[in-house]
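Researcher: Here's the sequence for the chain we discussed earlier.
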Amino acid sequence: MEENPKERKMSVILRKKCIVKAMNEHLSPERHHKLTLSNLDLLSGRFPVTYLYLYYHSRSDRGSINISNNVFESLKTSLAKTLSYYYPFAGRIVEDPQTSQTLIICDNNGALLVEAVANIPLIHLDFYNLNQTLEGILVSCLNPDEFPFPVQVQVTCYTCGGVSITFTFDHALGDATAFGNFLSSWSQLARDMPLSCIPDLDLGRSLPPRLPPTYHPYFNHVFVKCTLEDIRNIPKTGILLKRLYFVDALSINHLQTLASADSNKRTKIEAFSAYVWKIMATSIDESHANCKMGWLVDGRGRLSHSSMSNYIGNVLSVAIEEASIVEIKQGSISAIANNVHRAISKVTNEAHFQDLIDWIECHKPGLMLPRFVLGREGPALVISSGRRFPVAELDFGFGSPVLGTVSSTIENSGVGYMNQRPSARGDGSWVISAILWPQLAAALESDSVLQPLCASHLQKS
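Model: Thanks. This is the structure I predict for it:
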């Protein structure tokens, strides 16, 4: 009996790998041979961050074209050009044995580029179950504890001619804005276009602490100094499920209407957060009286310096709010959204970021994290908005993607995460990448707002 291709077990075979170095080393001046991580870089935790993009085969007047032909060589050439502008991404991240400071050695060690082939058409990927999908399309070719290349890229070609590209970054290099700028620049250079962003590799590293450093006592309760061992040894919390969801524009707009019912206009992400928090409260067992939510906040635009929009590094903090589970269960979406708004507003200002820079200065050397991220403060969920992150526009010369999202290869998480991205459909819908505990996943899926992502949700070429 002939095998049904839909039932075929996916296998991925590594075909080639190479180390890509910056093409024009003269763009990396000697004075940048070593870059010390900024204070805000130290808050990154050194987590790996993976972006996943899917591309169907393109079409032209000549009909169907298999875009896997020459894709690898084209990406290799344009990556070398991109690394010339983003030279720390071709470096090595090490700890100085004398000072214990983390450094980026800008020696053009290179980025890792891998090509693989899958035995299924791209449309047969399990889009919802990221645990399974990422395991299949991220070939394990290096010891993850060594992670000698802070940028690793895998191009996987499918039997239909489609392609997936995964980009894995060491978080010490930057945050979502930095990585979005890197990927946008790469796609522009791949199409021989001028760069819309000339990367600034200095400004954020020159944000000084005050003399003497001063900060509100609040920061001692929210943040903690830690080591890579602390991060690797996060207690088993059961937050293991990696999922992709689709949220249509009608649902988003409806939630915003509910959240703004008391005449206070709330943003879509505030409304969505209120909804998720209410669902989350139903998923927590009776041994907990309270739960927390956090929101990642970009400091670009909050600091009174020249424009930091092109700064490549980390400029993130986190807003955190704790509430009783009973209060959240009984509260209206608008009341909860008001709490979300107040929590985020406390962080979106220069005073907060200056205090954070000073707090880190007083606790160096080492890494820093929000305490609850280490999984020691009860149930918590972090929400990140990526409405400005490039999705549909990430064209490397073979068409726009049908999906662009983010995840992580971490095996255990101390908190749940939900990352919002605009869908490639361009109709106001979202794709949500989530790392969840089973009870929360079940509670979210019992309602109709978050739909398990499937092929019908993807924009077709």
